[in-house]
Design goal:
This protein is of the alpha+beta class. The chain has one domain: DD-peptidase/beta-lactamase superfamily (Beta-lactamase), CATH 3.40.710. The chain is built from 9 helices and 15 strands. It has an 8-stranded antiparallel beta sheet, sandwiched between helices. A 3-stranded antiparallel beta sheet has the order 5-9-6. α1 runs antiparallel to α9, α2 packs parallel to α5 and α4 packs across α5. The chain starts with a helix and ends with a helix.
């Protein structure tokens, strides 16, 4: 592994396009439980010229799914639900989904219709998880027989958030805060609900429009929580990463389930577990949404992790993370 100064220099070089008065990024390298590099670049808020820092909170997008899956696993440990429960036990308004189980939702093998394709052009307000359910109620079909194929599904994870709410008798955001975030000391991480919660040290998302950066922070689907609504920082995610090495949050069996390949994806080199992708020794997940591109790549056997969070829509953080992996462990 490179020395800390040399590692910082090498990572700075990889991240040079994020430096200056442009949408930025925060990068963390964690080795053997210690943060060996924590860097931030560019701006979290262009309009107010607020710099990105390790405490900057980015919308995680689909990196949220690992937290949604963890919430389900906690409720299974509590005996409040079972992974093989049919989802109509919790969402009886979906009779055409009688064969779909919670496990199918977790592994993207449900065949549920993509809710994004069901949004009418006349809809102008932001959708919430309950709206996803209402959209799915109107379409009495699935793409395939549940359990027979893989199709990445934001619909499934929106429904999981609703199931968390019903099984816990709390809202998804509150359950997340009380059972995951607060116990781990992730004080500034939250499932964001406009008008209810406040994001501290917030990064706003940007896209290039007519050759200049334009704020594109929210879309019609940005308020759906279960599939992508969490905001967090590299500081807080280091605490999340640490908790996945022991049983302070999840039992050993739950952690095993979370990281055990459960479905083949469309990429023969990548499997899907419960909220995580698996590629060889790496467990990882990316998150892409309007104005944000993020990734966490963990190597549990080698005990190191790389996290890249960005507030722009044109970056490739997974490639960047793998380039940083080569600096940290040339032969992972």
């Amino acid at each position: 592994m490179l020395g800390s100064v040399m590692l910082s220099d090498e990572v700075d070089s990889l991240m040079r396009v994020y430096q200056g008065d442009v949408p930025g990024a925060s990068v963390s390298v964690i080795r053997d439980g210690q943060v060996v590099l924590s860097r931030a670049y560019g701006l979290a808020d262009l309009e107010n010229r607020a710099s990105a820092t390790p405490a900057t909170n980015y919308r995680l997008a689909s990196m949220t799914k690992q937290f949604t899956a963890a919430a389900i696993l906690l409720l299974a440990e509590d005996g409040c639900l079972a992974l093989d429960d049919p989802i109509i036990k919790w969402l009886p308004m979906l009779p055409h989904a009688a064969e779909i189980t919670i496990r199918h939702l977790l592994t993207h093998t449900s065949g549920l219709i993509d809710y994004e394709d069901l949004i009418r052009e006349s809809i102008s307000r932001q959708l919430h998880d309950a709206d996803v359910l209402h959209l799915l109620e109107t379409h009495n079909r699935t793409y395939f027989v549940p359990g027979t194929s893989f199709r990445y599904s934001n619909s499934g994870y929106a429904l999981l958030a609703l199931i968390v709410g019903k099984a816990s008798q709390q809202g998804f955001a509150l359950f997340l805060r009380e059972r995951i975030l607060a116990p781990l000391g992730m004080q500034n991480t939250l499932a964001y609900e406009e008008g209810i919660s406040t994001i501290t040290h917030r990064a706003f998302g940007y896209s290039v429009v007519e050759l200049s950066w334009t704020r594109t922070d929210q879309s019609l689907t940005s308020a759906v929580l279960g599939d992508g609504g969490i905001y967090s920082s590299i500081d807080d995610l280091a605490k999340w990463d640490a908790a996945l090495y022991d049983t302070r949050l999840l039992s050993a069996e739950s952690i095993r389930l979370a990281f055990t390949p459960a479905a083949r994806t469309t990429n023969p080199k990548v499997a899907y577990a419960l909220g995580w992708r698996i590629s060889g020794d790496a467990v990882w997940h990316s998150g892409e949404t309007l104005g944000f591109r993020n990734v966490i790549v963990r190597y549990p056997r080698q005990h190191f992790t790389v996290i890249v969070l960005t507030n722009r829509n044109d970056s490739e953080p997974y490639s960047l993370a793998l380039a940083i992996v080569k600096l940290v462990a040339p032969r992972p």
